[in-house]
Automatic annotation (TrEMBL):
Protein name (database record): Leu/Ile/Val/Thr-binding protein
Lineage: Bacteria, Pseudomonadati, Pseudomonadota, Alphaproteobacteria, Hyphomicrobiales
Record has Transport as a keyword: yes
Leucine-binding protein domain ranges (all copies): 38-373
Organism: Methylobacterium thuringiense
Coiled coil: none
Matches recorded under CDD domains: PBP1_ABC_LIVBP-like (cd06342)
Source superkingdom: Bacteria
Family to which the UniProt record says this protein belongs: Belongs to the leucine-binding protein family.
Signal sequence annotation: 1-36
Length: 381
C-alpha cells in the first residue's frame, strides 16, 4: 500500500478513533511526535457546607494549571483538569476515587476534608495513584505511610499543639471551654487540643459536644454564659462557628472565641458579622506574603480574585506534582512519587520537600485574628 493510500485511510478513520489512539496512528504514518493531555483529577467539595474552601483550592489549582501549560506543561504535555465534587462526604469521595481509577487518572489533587481524603486515599494507594491534598490535616492520613499520598498543608496534631500553647500562654487563669460537633475533624482537633493543654498543666472548665443548630446554639450560648466561661475553643467549620458566634453575641455572650483552620474563609465573617472581630484562629503560614508567591498573587488579583485561605495551597499542590514530574521527566505516578519523597522543589510555599510519610517540610501553623471581615497575623504577647 502506498503512503498516499495510508494517509487517505488515516483521514477516513479520524472521525471514529479516540484522540490518543489517533495520535498513535498518525505517529506511525507521519513520524511526528504525539501529544497526549495529562489528566489531573481535582476532588473538592462543590456542594455541602465546605464549598467555600473547595472553591479556594480549585481556583488555586486552575491558576497553577494555566501557568503550567503556558510554560510547556508536565513533561512537555498539557494538563487537563477532571474536577469532581465529593461534598466532603466519605461515600461520595469513594465514588470520586473509583471514577478516577476507571478513567485511568493517575494524579489527583484532593481531597479537602480529612474524612474524604482518608477514605479515598486507600483506593488511590491500592491503584498506584498519586494524591496530594491542599487542606486535609488529619495526622492519620500520612501516618499510615502510604507511598503515593502527600499533603502541602499542616497536620492537625501540630495545629492542636499551637492552640494549646496559645490557650496556656494567654488564658491560663481564665475559664476555658473546648467544644466540638459530631464531625470527625472537629472531634479530633478538640480532643488533641485538650490533651496538649492538659499536658502543659492547664485544665479546661468544660469539654463538651453539641449538635449545631439555631436552637442548640442558643441553648449552648446561655449555658456557657451561665458557667462564666471566658474563652471558647471550637474545632468546627466556618458555617457552624459563624452561626454560634453570632447567636451568642445576639444573646449578650461575647467570650474570646478561638477557631481552627476550618474557619479560614470569608464565609465565617459573613455569617458571624461584626461578632467575628477579635476571633482567634490557627491557620497555615500565609504564603501569599512570601516573595515566591507574589507572581501568583498578582495574577489572581488581576483576574478579580482574592488569594485568600487555601487558594495558594491549591496552587502549590498541583505545582508540586508538576515540578516532580518535570524533574523525573515522566508522567508516571511512581516516578513522581519517588521525586516528591527524595527531592526539594521551589514552590509558592518556598523551597520544600516531603518526608517519608508524605508531609510537607514547610513551616506549619501560626496564630491569626479576624478583623473587619479579614484575618491577619495576631500580635505576639
Amino acid at each position: 500500500m502506498t503512503i498516499g493510500r495510508l494517509l487517505s485511510l488515516g483521514a477516513r478513520l479520524a472521525g471514529s478513533l479516540p484522540r490518543i489512539l489517533l495520535g498513535s496512528a498518525l505517529l506511525a504514518i507521519t513520524a511526528c511526535p504525539a501529544r497526549a493531555d495529562v489528566v489531573v483529577g481535582v476532588a473538592v467539595p462543590r456542594s455541602g457546607p465546605y464549598v467555600a474552601i473547595g472553591e479556594q483550592v480549585l481556583r488555586g489549582v486552575q491558576a497553577a494549571a494555566k501557568d503550567t501549560n503556558a510554560k510547556g506543561g508536565l513533561d512537555g504535555e498539557p494538563i487537563v483538569l477532571d474536577v469532581q465534587d465529593d461534598a466532603c462526604d466519605s461515600n461520595q469521595a469513594t465514588a470520586v476515587a473509583n471514577h478516577y481509577v476507571q478513567a485511568n487518572v493517575r494524579l489527583v489533587v484532593g481531597h479537602v476534608c480529612s474524612n474524604a481524603s482518608l477514605t479515598a486515599s486507600d483506593i488511590y494507594a491500592a491503584n498506584g495513584i498519586v494524591m496530594i491534598t491542599a487542606a486535609s490535616v488529619a495526622a492519620k492520613l500520612t501516618d499510615r505511610g502510604l507511598p503515593t499520598i502527600f499533603r502541602v498543608c499542616g497536620r492537625d496534631d501540630d495545629q492542636a499543639k499551637l492552640s494549646a500553647a496559645v490557650l496556656a500562654e494567654r488564658f491560663r487563669d481564665r475559664k476555658i471551654a473546648i467544644l466540638y460537633d459530631p464531625s470527625p475533624p472537629s472531634r479530633a482537633l478538640a480532643a488533641s487540643t485538650k490533651d496538649n493543654l492538659n499536658r502543659i498543666g492547664v485544665n479546661e472548665a468544660l469539654f463538651a459536644a453539641f449538635q449545631p443548630s439555631d436552637t442548640d446554639d442558643a441553648a449552648l450560648a446561655d449555658r456557657l454564659k451561665g458557667l462564666g466561661i471566658d474563652v471558647v475553643y471550637y474545632g468546627g467549620g466556618a458555617p457552624e462557628m459563624g452561626r454560634l458566634v453570632k447567636i451568642a453575641a445576639d444573646r449578650g455572650f461575647r467570650p474570646q472565641w478561638f477557631g481552627t483552620s476550618s474557619i479560614a474563609t470569608p464565609e465565617f465573617a459573613k455569617i458571624a458579622g461584626s461578632a467575628s472581630n477579635g476571633v482567634l484562629m490557627t491557620f497555615y503560614l500565609d504564603p501569599s506574603r512570601k516573595t515566591d508567591a507574589q507572581a501568583v498573587v498578582s495574577a489572581v488579583k488581576a483576574q478579580g480574585g482574592d488569594p485568600d485561605g487555601s487558594l495558594i495551597y491549591g496552587y502549590a499542590a498541583l505545582q508540586a506534582l508538576v515540578e516532580a514530574g518535570n524533574f523525573a521527566r515522566s508522567t508516571d505516578p511512581r516516578a513522581i512519587a519517588k521525586a516528591l519523597h527524595t527531592e526539594r522543589f521551589d514552590l509558592v510555599l518556598g523551597p520544600v520537600g516531603f518526608d517519608a510519610k508524605g508531609d510537607v517540610t514547610a513551616q506549619g501553623y501560626v496564630l491569626y485574628v479576624w478583623r473587619d471581615g479579614n484575618f491577619n497575623y495576631a500580635k505576639t504577647n
